[in-house]
Design goal:
The protein has six helices and eight strands; from the N terminus they run E-E-H-H-H-E-E-E-H-E-H-E-E-H. With 227 residues, it is α+β, with helices and mostly antiparallel strands. It has a single domain, classed as 3-Layer(aba) Sandwich (Aminopeptidase). An eight-stranded mixed β-sheet has the order 1-2-3-4-5-6-8-7, sandwiched between helices. Helix 4 runs antiparallel to helix 6. The termini are far apart. The relative contact order is 0.16. Belongs to the acetyltransferase family. RimJ subfamily.
């Protein structure tokens, strides 16, 4: 049960329904030319984003008392993060092998975040997971739910997937609001699901299947009352 074919990449998804100046939202490939804008965006939103950032555990094995630590075999504490160019190349490799669709989120020509469709699996599961972050200055403007809906529809209509899910920390109120707006089904709590800021954290799983949105998740989102 693995990826059996690589979807077309790069791909650009576009929506013009947002009530912002211009109102054009693009999901596109992250480019090396985005470096300065990406670095500035991350720096400006460090406090907004850092508490939700995924981290990698210490190397796998057991401590001196025999307790299991968990982690990534072969990793050492000295492992350095890649350069931005290396980061973009790694995203492109993952996209081309069909396991991930790593989108930059662009609003009216401005880089405002990222959205990643990951764990793309075919066979009997036909599923993927969606994760995202955006700058605080665009939060609450419909950018994130629209982007998630666009990506979900691409998964359903172009990739032929059956199900997409979003996993969210229970205390991440802004992100919980996104899935509430989209009407995703709450499938319950996954204990110690992801490593976040140095510890294993619980997440709630929200999901939608293609038969639930025959006209697409974006169509359902556009038709929902805007709070």
């Amino acid at each position: 049960m693995g990826v059996v074919w690589a979807p077309r990449w790069p791909v650009v998804l576009r929506d013009d329904s947002l009530s912002t100046p211009g109102g054009t939202l693009l999901l596109r490939r992250l480019r090396r030319a985005d470096r300065d804008a990406w670095m500035d965006l991350r720096a400006d939103n460090r406090d907004w984003l850092e508490r939700w950032e995924a981290t990698t555990p210490e190397p796998t094995g057991r401590d001196r008392d025999g307790r299991y630590r968990g982690g990534w075999p072969g990793r050492t504490q000295e492992t350095k993060p890649p350069s931005f160019t290396g980061y973009v190349r790694a995203l492109d490799r993952a996209a081309k092998d069909g396991s991930t669709l790593p989108f930059a989120v662009e609003l009216d020509g401005e880089l405002v975040g990222q959205l990643t469709v990951s764990s793309i699996t075919y066979g009997s599961l036909c599923s993927a997971s969606i994760g995202y972050w955006v700058g605080e200055h665009v939060a609450g403007r419909g950018v994130t739910p629209t982007a998630v809906a666009m990506a979900a529809d691409h998964c359903f209509f172009e990739l032929g997937l059956h199900r997409v899910e979003v996993n969210i920390r229970p205390e991440n109120v802004p992100s919980l609001r996104v899935v509430e707006k989209l009407g995703l089904r709450d499938e319950g709590l996954r204990e110690a699901y992801l490593h976040i800021q140095g510890r294993w954290c619980d997440h709630r799983t929200f999901a939608v299947t293609a038969p639930e949105v025959p006209d697409g998740l974006l169509a359902r989102w556009r038709g929902a009352p805007q709070a």
